[in-house]
């Protein structure tokens, strides 16, 4: 398999970590009981069991984090432990991961410990991740809406004969509805979404960094230990152990960094003023 599991760098996994203020008084730590429980879980079977009743009763946040736990384990096991019809042992998965710069033996161990009970279940005792995500999205939970919007936009295409305009417009509607909550992790993820609507690859990359800088200023975890920073550094051999997210963005955009910061400040001003209409093409 050639790509890492989609859920591993997902920004919502760091939603409840302590924010890095970066000199901006708007930045503040978030409190999220489900995110805290997900982060601290040593066995995601237990986590899934603990939130299943709330999800079944219609709690959209419980539905989202149950979907996330199920997808994290399914993607992680598929990536590290499944090879065709054969299941790798832990030792085999560690050996495989050790030969690739973009994989992590620590992640192998984490997925094995957290997910083996769910992976070994003969059926789906807690349901299907896509069904729970849809339920959460339909209930208006912001993280579910932005994640669903990304999926829809990718499926729709954004230009050319294959473009599905109705699906693209629904993706925009969901993304903008999620953005109105002002949650920093939604703002961070919105950059990936917004970049899909920029035709030029360089401009698309800059669009992502602008939104990520804006999210950092608003309290998203951009410390050197943030999961997204560690994930990016798997592919960047110039990363230094002390580098935080701002340093990473600066190093990869040294000529344009001042402009990106200016745009991030302007973006935050628009968000504060509730000016959402011109944020997407």
Q: Pick out the low-confidence regions.
A: 1-31
How many individual helices? 13
Pattern of helices and strands = HHHEEHHHHHHHHHH
Main-sheet strand order equals 1-2
Rg from C-alpha positions? 19 Å
Structural class: mainly alpha
Give the end-to-end Cα distance, rounded to a whole number of Å: 34 Å
Query: How much strand?
Result: under 5%
Largest sheet geometry: 2 strands, antiparallel
How much helical structure, as a percent, in the residues? 55-70%
Strand element count = 2
- Characterize the overall form: globular
Mean pLDDT: 84
Output the keywords.
disordered N terminus, two-stranded antiparallel ribbon, globular, 281 residues, mainly alpha, 60% helix
Characterise the protein shown here:
This protein has 281 residues and is mostly helical. Helix content is 60%, strand content 1%. The chain is built from 13 helices and 2 strands; from the N terminus they run H-H-H-E-E-H-H-H-H-H-H-H-H-H-H. The chain has a two-stranded antiparallel sheet with strand order 1-2. A hairpin with a 2-residue loop joins strand 1 (82-83) and strand 2 (86-87). The chain is globular. It starts with 32 loop residues before the first helix and ends in an 8-residue tail after the last helix. The model is unreliable at 1-31 (pLDDT under 50).
């Amino acid at each position: 398999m050639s790509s890492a599991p989609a859920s591993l760098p997902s920004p919502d996994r760091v939603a409840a970590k302590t924010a890095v203020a970066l000199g901006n008084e708007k930045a503040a730590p978030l409190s999220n009981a489900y995110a805290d429980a997900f982060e601290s879980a040593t066995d995601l079977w237990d986590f899934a069991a603990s939130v299943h009743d709330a999800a079944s009763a219609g709690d959209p946040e419980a539905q989202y984090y149950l979907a996330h736990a199920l997808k994290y384990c399914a993607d992680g096991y598929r990536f590290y432990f499944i090879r065709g019809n054969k299941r790798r042992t832990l030792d085999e998965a560690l050996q495989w991961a050790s030969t690739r710069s973009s994989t992590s033996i620590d992640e192998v161990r984490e997925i094995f410990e957290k997910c083996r009970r769910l992976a070994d279940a003969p059926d789906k005792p807690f349901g299907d991740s896509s069904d729970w995500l849809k339920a959460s999205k339909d209930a208006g939970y912001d993280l579910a809406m932005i994640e669903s919007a990304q999926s829809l936009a990718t499926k729709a295409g954004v230009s050319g004969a294959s473009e599905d305009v109705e699906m693209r417009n629904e993706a925009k509607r969901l993304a903008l509805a999620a953005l109105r909550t002002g949650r920093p992790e939604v703002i961070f993820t919105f950059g990936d979404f917004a970049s899909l609507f920029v035709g030029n690859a360089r401009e698309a990359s800059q669009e992502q960094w602008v939104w990520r800088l804006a999210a950092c200023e608003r309290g998203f975890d951009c410390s050197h230990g943030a999961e997204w920073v560690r994930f990016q550094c798997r592919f960047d051999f110039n990363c230094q152990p002390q580098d935080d997210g701002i340093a990473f963005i600066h190093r990869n955009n040294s000529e344009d960094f001042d402009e990106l910061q200016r745009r991030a400040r302007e973006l935050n001003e628009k968000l504060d003023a509730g000016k959402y209409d011109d944020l997407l093409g």
